[in-house]
Amino acid sequence: MLSEKWETNVLLLIILFSSASGASIGINIGTQMSNLPSAAEIVSILKAQQIQHVRLFDADNQMLKALANSGIEVIVGVPNDQLLQIGESQSEAADWIKKNVAAFIPATNITYIAVGNEVLTTIPNAALVLVPAMKFLHSALLAANLNFQVKVSSPQSMDMIPKHFPPSTATFNSSWNAIMNQYLQFLKNTEASFMLNAQPYYSYTKEQGIFPLEYVLFQPLKPNNQIVDPNTNFDYLNMFDAMVDAAYYSIKSLNFSGIPIIVTATGWPSQGGASEPDANIDNALAYNSNIIRRVLNGSGTPSQPTTSISTYIHELFNEDLRPGVDSEKNWGVFVANGTALYSLTFGHLAETNADSIGLVGLFCVANFSADSSALKKGLDWACGPGSANCTAIQPGQPCYEANNLVALASYAYNDYYHRTQASGGTCNFGNTAMTTTTDPSHGSCIFAGSSASGSSAGTTGSLTPGSAFGPVAAFSWASRLQVVSTLQVASLLPFLV
Ligand SMILES: *[C@@H]1O[C@H](CO)[C@@H](O)[C@H](O)[C@H]1NC(C)=O
Ligand SMILES: *[C@@H]1O[C@H](CO)[C@@H](O)[C@H](O)[C@H]1NC(C)=O
Ligand SMILES: *[C@@H]1O[C@H](CO)[C@@H](O)[C@H](O)[C@H]1NC(C)=O
Ligand SMILES: *[C@@H]1O[C@H](CO)[C@@H](O)[C@H](O)[C@H]1NC(C)=O
Ligand SMILES: *[C@@H]1O[C@H](CO)[C@@H](O)[C@H](O)[C@H]1NC(C)=O
Ligand SMILES: *[C@@H]1O[C@H](CO)[C@@H](O)[C@H](O)[C@H]1NC(C)=O
Ligand SMILES: *[C@@H]1O[C@H](CO)[C@@H](O)[C@H](O)[C@H]1NC(C)=O
């Protein structure tokens, strides 16, 4: 008995520990495609990308079967068109759980049911059955003894919050107060999370010019463009954090607390029509790689600093059959044949090691004949989305060489290559890179993979801080992206100090 109790305590400790830093990144898998890959092909893409969390919009049984024993954690969805049936009948709900959840557990690690999607804002006539459907499904889980493994929630649109900024004054549209009260009470009672679809892309494109693009893409703001909530004095570094905080404050305004938020959709389209210039590969890559970095750093928002924000990127594939404007069809990171449109790293970057043992004596360096703008792009990519450790090429550090783009890019390319080669990273960088066995290390500037040992204490004497292309910061993309310096809407000016 004693030892059993001891075990329970250890288990509890472990659970608490992992939830304190357990932010995860997942991806949504929409399937409105003319040539959808097979479930097995989808799972092999997920595995190759080391993606461990997915959200399905339905409970496709082929997909759930293919996900069995994959170690991938799954949110299944009740599509909006099945909501009415389930919300009106406990037995329909029990049947749904039996066929789509119980039949696959434990081989398939289903942990959440997302009931409908943005129900209140997209199919308001089904609003009254939303919470009953959630309750019926939960009762069915309870009856099947699955209520500890599987939780029930329902993704809400940011459109539920008419005014997001400043976050401290945000509230849900009061037309929905009665239902939101029931919804929040249900989440509270069942210890489930609030699911939020937070899409800065829509806010940015709708309110063109109010907020700078850097703010939306998690890039550094100009010093005179800080975005501050005047009531709390919280400094918002990016729109994503402000949106999540707006939802926390909206929950608080209905007198609920202690309900964590999972972001069930956020992303950026890589292509759009002629009138959608912000939907492009550069922005999609910047947004998605920076959201991964943001989430995996484990921190919360300014108002909830210790609550990390598990997040699902929207989405795995471009969905060519989705209705709407061109950008709607282009939120995917991959096209149907499995080709990546741009390269993201989903794993936990801090865990990768710069010194892959097999690579000692092999280096990835910049081709000195490469075009300098292509090198600049490669360098930005390596230090930004590629997550190379670029500390050593900052001004004042041993490998910094003012105006020597080839030297800087070589360091960054090589660091990236050594970190990622074991998991498929390549030495390419838009054809500006090549491998060599000649060790580029010099003085105290030691490249990953070098057999040279010793410390890198001193700095070389030739440092000129403030080079032509500026310090190599992790997010130096900003320099080549549109910069909105004038914030045009008077009502927002007070928040920009
Ligand atoms: C399912 O996922 C949860 C949450 O990540 C994890 O704690 C659990 O160990 C997983 N179960 C299995 C069988 O993999
Ligand atoms: C609030 O929701 C109601 C009902 O859907 C809608 O008619 C109204 O326009 C919304 N108000 C705002 C400010 O969005
Ligand atoms: C929340 O609680 C405060 C203080 O108890 C009360 O004044 C307020 O009316 C409550 N608000 C709601 C929406 O229930
Ligand atoms: C994590 O992200 C938050 C929000 O963007 C930021 O304030 C914080 O400095 C980051 N922490 C680390 C360790 O990078
Ligand atoms: C995959 O599709 C893309 C665009 O549709 C195309 O450019 C590429 O060549 C295809 N790749 C393969 C391996 O079929
Ligand atoms: C370096 O770049 C030049 C110009 O683009 C190209 O001709 C050459 O083949 C490249 N060298 C290597 C080793 O890739
Ligand atoms: C990055 O490199 C610097 C030395 O250049 C080192 O001190 C630091 O620990 C490295 N950081 C990580 C996260 O590897």
From TrEMBL:
InterPro entries, per database record: GH (IPR017853), Glyco_hydro_17 (IPR000490), Glyco_hydro_17_plant (IPR044965), X8 (IPR012946)
Ranges for domain X8: 362-447
Class of enzymatic activity (EC top level): hydrolase
Catalysed reactions listed for this entry: Hydrolysis of (1->3)-beta-D-glucosidic linkages in (1->3)-beta-D-glucans
Pfam families, per the entry: Glyco_hydro_17, X8
Higher taxonomy: Eukaryota, Viridiplantae, Streptophyta, Embryophyta, Tracheophyta
Keyword match Zinc: no
EC number: 3.2.1.39
Family indicated by similarity: Belongs to the glycosyl hydrolase 17 family.
Protein name as catalogued: glucan endo-1,3-beta-D-glucosidase
Keywords: Disulfide bond, Glycosidase, Hydrolase, Plant defense, Signal
